[in-house]
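Hello,

Following up on my earlier ticket. Below are the three sequence lines again, exactly as submitted.
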Amino acid sequence: MKRPVAVVGVGQTHHKARRADVSIPGLVREAVDRALADAGLRHEDIDAVVVGKAPDMLEGVMQPEQFLAGALGAHLKPLLRVHTAGSVGASTAITAMTHVASGLYDRVLAVAFEKQSEGNAMWALSPNLPFTPPLVAGAGGFFAPYCRAYIARTGCPPHIGPVTAASARDNAGRNEYAHLREPMTVDDVMNSPVLWDPIRYLETCPSSDGAIALVVANEDAARKGPRKPAWIKGAASYAEGMWVPGRDQVSPRAGKVCARHVYDQAGITNPWKEIHTAEIYVPFAWFEAMWLENLGFCDEAEGWKLVDRGEVKFGAHLPINPSGGVLCTNPIGASGMIRLGEAALQVMGRAGAHQVEGAKTALGHAYGGGAQYFAMWVVGSER
Amino acid sequence: MDEPPKEPVKYIDAEVRLPYHYVAGDYRARYLRALKDKKILGSKCAATGKVFVMPVIASPESFATCDTWVELAGRGTITTFCVVNIPVIGRDLEIPYVAASVALDGADVSMFALIQECPPADVRMGMRVEAVWKPDGERRGDHEDILYFRPTGEPDAPFESFSHRL
Amino acid sequence: MSLRNVAVVGFAQLPVVARDEHRMSTEMLYPVVREALERVGVTRDAIDYQVSASADYLDGRPFGFVAALDVMGSWPPRQDLHLEMDGSFAAYYAWLKIQTGEVDTAIVCAHGKTSEGEPERVLNLQLDPYYQAPLGLTPTATAALQASAYQARTGATDADFAAVAARNRAAGARNPDNQVRESASADALQRTPWVIEPLRRGYLSPVGESASCLVLAAEGKAEQLCQRPAWIHGVDHRTELQSIGARDLSRSAGAARAAEKAFEMAGIGSARDVDLVELLATNPAEELIVCEALGVNARATAPVVNPSGGALCAHPVMSTGLIRLGEVFRQLSGQAGERTVPGARRAVAHASQGHCLQQNVVWVLGTERRWA
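Thanks for your patience. The regenerated structure is below:
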C-alpha cells in the first residue's frame, strides 16, 4: 500500500437484543466516544466521517447519517454513507481507509451501527421484491439451500454446524461486548428447532442493537498516538452479479478474488500459516466451514474438517471469531466493522480475555447480498 | 395536553406507511402475462445464447442484451432446497414446506420455487419437478399463477448434471 | 499539494421523464452504462472500479441497489462500492479512490425511480424520528422555511424568485434531456399557486426519474478515452447539522466551506474565475443561497448559472447531482449543443442533498490539467 494506514482506535457498544437505554444517537455516541478515547483524540482531530449501515427500513429513518451528523461530530466535515448490505460495516471501514490512503485525510472516523429492535427486522430482511413471489422469511431461508449444497458436495457431517455454533458461544463468553454469551453444548444446538433445514435455531445469528467505530490514520498520526496501532496491510471490496449462470453461491468467486487481492497486498502466500486469527462473517454456522475454503485456508471440501478437528477454536492453530462472531452478535450494519475492528484489536494486543496469544497478523472479513459483496482486510502489528 | 408527563418519555411509536406504485418493466410484465397462458418465458443472451428466467434485459455475465424470448417447458430439476419451519409474511403456507432452487430445462439460471405434493422429507437434490398451475379461468397473469412445483416421478437427474449450477 | 490529474471522460443519461412505465430502476441503468462505455470506446473490463448511488427508501425496497450489479457488468467480480447518496458524492469517492493510485478508471452510476413512491412523504423520513419527522415536515415545507429565512435576511422578493426560476426554464428549453422543456416567463411563474409560501408551484422541481453513468480516468488513461477530457481541478464536500433550528437556514455554511476548499485545491479565488456553474437547487431560494456560498452574483451574466436548466427542469433524485457534473463535462468537451457556453474553459459543478441543503459537494473542472 502506497501510503500506510493504521487503525488507531476502536470503540464498540455492549450489543444487546434491545438497547432501550439509548436513542439512536446515544447508541452511536457510545461507540464513537469509546473509539476517540481509545485513540486519544477529540472530534476536532477528525477530518472526515464515514457511516455504514444496512437498509434504512430497519429503523424507519431514511439516510439517518443526516440527522446523526451532530452526534457524529461531523459538522462542516465531509460525511459519506455506505450501504453494501451485510458487508457494509467492513466496506465502510475500507472506505475510511481509502480516505487516508489518498493522502488527503489524516484521521478519519468510521462508524457502523444498527438499532434494528426499533423496526421489524424480519420484514426488512425478507427478500420480498415487487413482482416476485415471497417464499421465505428471513435471510436464513435464502442461504439454507446453499448450506445444504455445501453439505452434499463435501460430505460434511451433521455435527459441524453445531460445533461451530457451540464454539462461537464459548468465544463470546470471553467478550464482554457480545450479545449472546451463555455457553451451549453441541447437543443443545442439535436439539434446537430446525428453522430452515438444515439451519437450526441455535445455528442462527441473533438480531442485535449495536454500534462500532474505528479511527484510521496515516503513519504520522499513528505513530503519535498513545497506542500501538494495527497496520492495514491489504484491503479490498468486491461484488459480483446475482444471476450469473453457474455462479457458485457456496464459494463465490468474488470472495476468492477479494481474498487473493488482499493477500497479495499483504504479501501472504499461505493464509493458514501466516494468519494467526480471523474474524469472518458467519451468520449461520455452516458458513464457517464454507468460508474457510473460500478464503483459502484449506482446499475445497476440507473446511469442515478444520472445524471437526478443533483447529479453529480458541487456543487452537487459527482461532476463528474469537469475539464470538456474528453468531453471537449481529447488529447488521455494524457486524462487518466489528469483524475488522476485532481483527485490529487482536494485533494491537488489546482483545482482553479473548486475545489470541501472539497474534501479529489477522484477517477481518464480511459478506453481503446473495453472497455477492465481499469486503475484507488484513492487519498486522508491524508496519 | 395540560401537564407534562410524570415519567420521562422513553418510547415513540411511529407507524410508517408509504404507498409505492412499482413499475414491473416490460420484461417482467411480459413474463407475468405469459403465465396466464401457462407459458414460462425466458430471455436469451445475444452473445452467449444462455437463457434467463425470470427474463432479464441484459446478461449479468456477458453484459450483452437479452432480447430474444424463449418458451420453457415448465419442468426442471431441484438443485438444492431447504425445509422451512417459519411462516413467511404475506402468505398462508402450511408449515413445514419446501423452498427449492429449480433449474428449469432450457434455462441457465435457477428459480426459487415452492414444492408441494411431496412430503418434505422425500424432497431430494436432483428430483425432477414440474409446474402446477392455477386452473383455467383463475389465472390472472401474476406470479401466483404457478401454484408450486411437484415431483414428476421421473428418475432423479444425476448429480453431475446439475452440480455446477445451484 | 500535488494530486493525480483525473478527468471526467464520459457521461450518459436517460432523458428525464415523469415516469418510465417500461423499465424498472436498474433496467434504466443498463443502457446508460453501455452508452458511457461506448462513448469512451472501451469494454467493461477496462474499468477498474465501480461506484453506484441509490437509496432504498426511494426504491421502496431494502437492498434495492443489489440488482444494479447485474446491469453494471459485474462479472467477473469487480471492485465495487455503493453509497446511499446522490451520484455526485459517489463520484467524489471514485475520484478519491483514484487518488490512492490503486485504480486509474472508474464508472459512477446513479439510479432511482422517484415516481414509484411519494417523495414528499418518503423524504419526511430523512428527518430525525424524535422531533422533526413527527411534525410531518415534507421537503417542500423545510425548503419553504429556508426560503422564508432567506427572504427575511436579504429582502429577496417573490419577483426575485420568479426571475431565477424563469432563467432556469429559459435555459432548460435548450436541453433535450430535461423533463420540462418549455420556457416560462417570470410573470407566468409568479401566477402559479402557492404550494407552501413563499414557494410557488412554478418554483419547484418536477417529480421525475432517470439513470446516469459518469466515467472518470486518471492522467495517462484519460487522454486515450476522450479527446477533450474535463479535468478535475478541485473538489470538496461538507455536511451541516440537520436540525432546522440549529443553523442559519438563510445561508449554506456547508456549501461555502466546500467551495472554499475546492477553490483552494483548484487554485482559484472564487467562482467568478469560472465560466459556468451547474448547481443543484430544487427551488430559487436554494439557488440564491448556493450562489452566495459560491461567491457568484446570481444577477450577473458571468459565470453562467445552470445553462442546463438545472434541477428546476429535471430532478431525477440520485442522478440530479451526477448530471450537474455530466453537464459540466458536456460543456467543457464541446458536447453541450444548443446550450453551449461559448469559450468555456473552467466550470463549477455542485450538488446537494438532505433537507435545506444539508450536504454539499463542490467541484471545479477545466479544459487543462491542474497539476504539472
